[in-house]
Amino acid sequence: MGSSGRYSRRTGSGRNGRRGRKTNIAWEKARAFFLENRLAAAGLLLLLILTAALVIRAFVTGGGHRVNVDASQPDIDVQLLDINPYSRPGIESNGITGIVIHYTANPGSTAQDNRDYFNGLQYSQATSASSNFVVGLDGEIIQCVPTWEVAYASNARNYDTVSIEVCHPDESGEFTEETYRSLVQLTAWLCVKFNLTEADVIRHYDVTGKNCPKYFVENEDEWEAFKENVEYAISRTPQEEGE
Fold first, then answer.
1. Which of 41, 167, 162 is nearest to 115 (CA)?
2. Which of 162, 173, 179, 192 is most buried as measured by Cβ atoms within 10 A of its Cβ?
3. Angle at alpha carbon of residue 242, lines to 161 and 201, rounded to 5°
4. Is the dihedral of CA 145, 147, 148, 154 positive or negative?
């Protein structure tokens, strides 16, 4: 009996040990599986967060984001140039069939700087240049030439388009958020004024092949996004009764 009792205790202990080892192995496998999947889930979550951040950044910085403006007339500071042969010849246009977007190619210059430069050409006679409008770094808009008059900006399209010069802070040619918003609203307003659509909005590049406006030439997707914003602004403009 004593021998049998000892054997039983040893046998029971061995079975319990084996069960314990199996339980530990199963636990370790479960723990490893949990950790592996937790890391995978965390990695997926991190990827989603980074993707969302990139999308938000693109919307905030103007890269294809929707601008919440309509085609109502923006605030415009009318400072018409003196009539002169170099920047405001006083010639009536042939009727407006398009809007041409330019950039100043003078980083950091303001709308006032560019307006005054155009007006000063009557004295310096350095070149012939002007624009109907200039949009500044803070979104301010100055009108230099009436929309029914020719401005010296768009070469062969001077006589049937309205030109908009746009200021930019650095060499990239990218516009500030304030500038971008004003440009969208001004362009949309001009489209409504002259019964045009976003399809009639072009770049200086589309007339002459010049790298102007630089950011919209070198980033075609940004140009398409800009025109989509103009289209959206036009669509948000209430129609007059009877139309």
1. 167
2. 162
3. 20
4. positive
In the chain, the largest separation of any two C-alpha atoms, in whole Å, equals 128
Which pTM was predicted? Answer: 0.73
Q: What is the pLDDT of residue 49?
A: 72
Residue 213, preceding bond cis, omega within 30 degrees?
yes
Angle at which helix 220-235 crosses helix 177-193, to 10 degrees, equals 60
**141 - beta bridge partners?**
135
Tokens encoding 212: 């102007």
**Residue pair 144/134 in contact by the 8 Å Cβ criterion:** yes
Element (H, E) at 2: helix 2-60
3-state secondary structure of 102: strand
Written as one letter, the residue type at 199 is: A
3-class secondary structure, 228: helix
Average of per-residue pLDDT across 2-26: 53
146, 149, 155, 159: CA torsion to nearest 10: 130
Residue 171 backbone dihedrals phi, psi, to 5 degrees:
-65, -20
Name the more confident of 240 and 239: 239
